[in-house]
Amino acid sequence: MARKTTTDDPLAPVTLAVGQEELLLDRAVQQVVAAARAADADTDVRDLTPDALQPGTLAELTSPSLFAERKVVVVRNAQDLSADTIKDVKGYLGAPAEEITLVLLHAGGAKGKGLLDAARKAGAREVACPKMTKPADRLAFVRSEFRGTGRSATPEACQALVDAIGSDLRELASAVSQLAADVEGTIDEAVVARYYTGRAEASSFTVADRAVEGRAAEALEALRWAVATGVAPVLITSALAQGVRAIGKLASAPRGARPGDLARELGMPPWKIDRVRQQMRGWSADGVAVALRAVAEADAGVKGGGDDPEYALEKAVVTIARAARSGRS
Question: For 204-227, what is each residue's pLDDT tens digit?
Answer without folding.
Answer: 788 898 899 999 998 998 888 778
